[in-house]
Amino acid sequence: MNKLVKEPSYNLIPERDLGKTPILECRRIGIDFGGLSAVDEFTIAIGRTEICGIIGPNGAGKTTIFNLLTNVYRPTRGSILVNGVDTLGMTTDEVNRRGVARTFQNIRLFKDLTVEENVLIGLHNSMNYSVASSMLRLPKYWKQEKEARERVRELLHIFHMENMTAQQAGSLPYGAQRRLEIVRSLATNPGILLLDEPAAGMNPSETAELMETIRKIRDEFHIAIMLIEHDMKLVMGICEGIAVLNYGRIIAKGTPDEIRNNPVVIEAYLGKEDE
After folding, report:
1. 275 pLDDT exceeds 60?
2. Which of 222, 145, 153 shows the shortest CA–CA distance to 189?
3. Are residues 90 and 205 in the same domain?
4. Domain stops at, among 137, 172, 188
5. Domain CATH for 204
6. Measured between alpha carbons, how far is 181 from 104 in angstroms, rounded to an integer?
7. Residue 104 forms part of a structural domain
């Protein structure tokens, strides 16, 4: 008879989130491309107000994880639960409606539209008037349009961008474009926000401002944030939990201090010293 053994788990969450369903849970997910396993046995849970980082060498599978979490890719095996609900078979849009929003490594704004118009696009989840109401400009249409524009102003005000409402998105400085992409994602009312290398291309002062922005998002919106980032100063300074990915597998998860001193993590980044 086979004996019972404890299954390895990386489900560490902040103490304040105990007793609540994790906003995101991955159970042994994996994906293969042409026989190559890009991600394997990825198991993690994210607390409802956790700031979590995913780090790892180039090619470790970090962005593939984000594509799996948003159903851009469908996992070959395992399951992904958002707020306790399995996302198997959902479209990317349906996963977003369940509460998962993301930004991209390469900024994907509608650069010819204004700042306000970009954020309004993010509010599509909350708009439920009919095509007839829109075409005939019925009261329900005007009511929801007014509420949406008020919400846009509220979101922009939080990030000190209310004076940019009418500006063309493509004309904004790089750091402001990054913030606008985050604001548009927040407009979808997520439970977890996925940030793919948010500090890419930023100078030190912009990165410091980004750290404050991430804290503000968690505190103002009471949501979880998961970020992929190569800037270790940002990751160690902002994240409560850090998962280290190497060759598509988690090799460690813990606090910044635990990860910083983990010999397995050091070897994955720097290589093993010759004896």
Report:
1. no
2. 222
3. yes
4. 188
5. 3.40.50.300
6. 9
7. no
Number of domain units in the chain: 2
Interval 194-239: pLDDT, tens: 999 999 888 888 889 889 999 999 999 999 999 999 899 999 999 9
φ, ψ of residue 272 to 5 degrees: the values are -90, 135
Looking at the fold, whether 34 and 49 belong to one and the same domain comes out as: yes
- The rounded distance, in Å, linking the Cα atoms of 273 and 271 is 7
The answer to whether residue 224 sits within a structural domain is yes
Q: Summarize pLDDT for 43-82 with one digit per residue, the tens.
A: 999 999 999 999 998 889 999 999 999 999 999 999 999 9
Round to whole Å and give the CA distance between 271 and 216.
37
Distance between CA atoms of 70 and 189, rounded to whole angstroms?
15
- Say how many residues make up the chain: 275
**Residues 61 and 179 reside in one and the same domain:** no
Gap between the Cα atoms of 133 and 130, Å rounded: 5
| 137 C-beta neighbours (distance < 10 Å), count | 10
Q: Which two tokens stand for residue 116?
A: 């306000």
Task: Of 55, 110, 90, 2, give the one whose Cα is nearest residue 228.
Answer: 55
147 located within any domain: yes
Whole domain around residue 202: which residue ranges? 7-99+190-275
Q: Check: CB of residue 166 under 8 Å from CB of residue 115.
A: yes
Q: How far is it, in rounded angstroms, from Cα 17 to Cα 138?
A: 44
Show Cβ contacts of residue 37 under 8 Å, excluding neighbours closer than 6 positions.
30, 31, 248
Give me the numbers of helices (H) and strands (E) for the chain, helices first please. Answer: 10, 10
Looking at the whole model, is its pTM more than 0.90?
Answer: no
